[in-house]
Write a structure and sequence with these properties.
This protein has 162 residues and is of the alpha+beta class. The protein has one domain: 2-Layer Sandwich (60s Ribosomal Protein L30, Chain: A). It is built from four helices and five strands; from the N terminus they run ββααβαβαβ. The protein has a five-stranded mixed β-sheet. Strand 3, helix 3 and strand 4 form a beta-alpha-beta unit. It starts with 24 loop residues before the first strand and ends with a strand.
Length: 162
């Protein structure tokens, strides 16, 4: 199995602002002046479909979801030689210690990235665990916590419009 390294993406592309502010779905942003314009398509996968509670081992449904994602969304970029890198970011809810949640979110992101690396071994992958630090919903409700437990896959590609 290929080792997924969090530093494979060139520093100019690993800038946090590259994908920040992009809503779920597709969006674009300008890269730093020294690099080409980029585009980030973001796919959000709910952790419940991917993993059992407190686990970073993929469920069968998670494997199927990643296969579908790789066959459809990622392939579309790879076939046109536009993809530059994939950033996989794990998130958690706020139940339990923050340090545990951070490590769990990183393990889950790494698991997803390793599966994608099996399918696309030449694509640079950036793995990040953010724990409970970036909620998208209220952690005070069951539904909100479920939305916060997620893995985001950011497909960073050359912006065709330039």
């Amino acid at each position: 199995m290929r080792r997924v390294n969090r530093f494979l993406v060139p520093p100019a592309l690993a800038v946090a602002s590259l994908c920040s502010g992009v809503a779920v779905g597709a969006g674009s942003t300008e890269a730093p002046a020294a690099t080409a314009a980029t585009h980030a398509e973001i796919v959000v996968l709910g952790a419940r479909a991917l993993f059992a509670r407190n686990s970073s081992t993929l469920r069968a449904e998670g494997v199927a979801a990643l296969r579908t994602l790789a066959a459809d969304r990622v392939r579309r970029h790879v076939d046109r030689d536009l993809i530059v890198a994939i950033r996989v970011i794990g998130h958690s809810d706020s139940i339990g210690p923050a340090a545990y949640n951070h490590k769990l979110s990183e393990r889950r992101a790494r698991t997803v990235a390793e599966r994608l690396a099996e399918i696309y071994p030449d694509l640079p992958l950036l793995v990040e665990g953010r724990g409970e630090s970036v909620p998208v919903a209220d952690n005070g409700t069951v539904a909100g916590r479920a939305r916060n437990r997620r893995v985001e896959i950011h497909m960073i590609s050359i912006d065709e419009r330039r």
